[in-house]
């Protein structure tokens, strides 16, 4: 047997809908001020710089992004922390009315792996109750804050009827982790990696040159098109809602729209395609496949 015949390291090509060679999803993590509030929990907040910067998102950035998507007829996938939906109760209904997908993104933008499993699941339940009350929708998707995941939380999502998750990156197209569809993300095409800057100790450098980022993202898209993968762009309301980044996003969309074989879809549509297609059994990994074979 040749090495690459082994089923855990050799997979067939992914199959997209007929006539399509790759997929593009424009996703937005509508964090607003939630990460700042989570990090600052239990502290007296007497400085306004970062929290006001983040509030730019729901005040101005979100509308500018949705207007741009509407201009091109694109329906996006919006991952919203519960506390943001609670603070801005008009957001979820507005997104649904615009044909966009809404999905869960924690309640307080909490780190799942840092919480007791029962508490993490309770936050998910609270978010589900709130989304149902505001929109009537259930069985939505999920994306973990900071893109981290645990086996316990995968099980919790199954129990609570989450339709898919978008937090991991074990393939560059959809796959199953256990019984849950995974619509993968990638750091390379996340705007926060290049433009997140709040003048705090967490900032290691200044924001990147948008021209260089555009070139990088176009190259990543071209690579995904070549290999038949999923180009999952992740942006944030308070980052890419600024004029400079909106211009970058417009140029990227214009480039990707030139190819008619690109499938423009929402993440829930991609998840549904995967679950009902031949890919479903071809791309499945265990949910608890953590390697424990290491020296103590």
Automatic annotation (TrEMBL):
<dbReference type="InterPro" id="IPR011330">
    <property type="entry name" value="Glyco_hydro/deAcase_b/a-brl"/>
</dbReference>
<dbReference type="InterPro" id="IPR037950">
    <property type="entry name" value="PgdA-like"/>
</dbReference>
<dbReference type="GO" id="GO:0016787">
    <property type="term" value="F:hydrolase activity"/>
</dbReference>
<feature type="domain" description="NodB homology">
    <location>
        <begin position="47"/>
        <end position="265"/>
    </location>
</feature>
<protein>
    <submittedName>
        <fullName>Peptidoglycan/xylan/chitin deacetylase (PgdA/CDA1 family)</fullName>
        <ecNumber>3.5.1.104</ecNumber>
    </submittedName>
</protein>
<keyword id="KW-0378">Hydrolase</keyword>
<dbReference type="Pfam" id="PF01522">
    <property type="entry name" value="Polysacc_deac_1"/>
</dbReference>
<dbReference type="InterPro" id="IPR002509">
    <property type="entry name" value="NODB_dom"/>
</dbReference>
């Amino acid at each position: 047997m040749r090495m690459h015949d082994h089923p855990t390291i050799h997979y067939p090509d992914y199959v997209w809908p007929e006539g399509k060679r790759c997929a593009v999803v424009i996703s937005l993590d509508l964090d607003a001020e939630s990460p700042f509030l989570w990090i600052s929990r239990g502290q007296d907040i007497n400085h306004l710089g970062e929290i006001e910067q983040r509030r730019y998102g729901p005040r101005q950035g979100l509308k500018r992004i949705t207007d741009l998507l509407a201009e091109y007829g694109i329906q996006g996938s919006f991952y919203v922390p519960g506390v943001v939906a609670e603070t801005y109760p008009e957001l979820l209904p507005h997104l649904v009315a615009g044909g966009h997908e809404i999905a869960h993104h924690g309640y307080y933008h909490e780190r799942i792996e840092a919480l007791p499993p029962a508490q993490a699941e309770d936050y998910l339940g609270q978010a589900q109750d709130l989304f149902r009350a505001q929109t009537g929708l259930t069985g939505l998707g999920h994306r973990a804050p900071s893109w981290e995941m645990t086996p316990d939380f995968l099980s919790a999502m199954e129990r609570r009827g989450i339709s898919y998750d978008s937090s991991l990156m074990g393939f560059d197209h959809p796959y199953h982790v256990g019984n849950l569809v995974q619509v993968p993300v990638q750091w390379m095409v996340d705007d926060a990696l290049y433009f997140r800057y709040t003048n705090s100790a967490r900032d290691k450098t200044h924001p990147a040159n948008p021209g260089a980022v555009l070139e990088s993202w176009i190259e990543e898209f071209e690579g995904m098109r070549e290999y038949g993968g999923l180009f999952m762009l992740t942006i944030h309301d308070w980052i890419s809602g600024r004029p400079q980044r909106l211009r970058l996003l417009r140029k990227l969309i214009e480039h990707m729209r030139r190819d008619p074989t690109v499938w423009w879809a929402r993440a829930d549509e991609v998840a549904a395609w995967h679950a009902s297609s031949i890919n479903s059994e071809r791309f499945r990994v265990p949910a608890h496949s953590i390697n424990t074979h290491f020296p103590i």
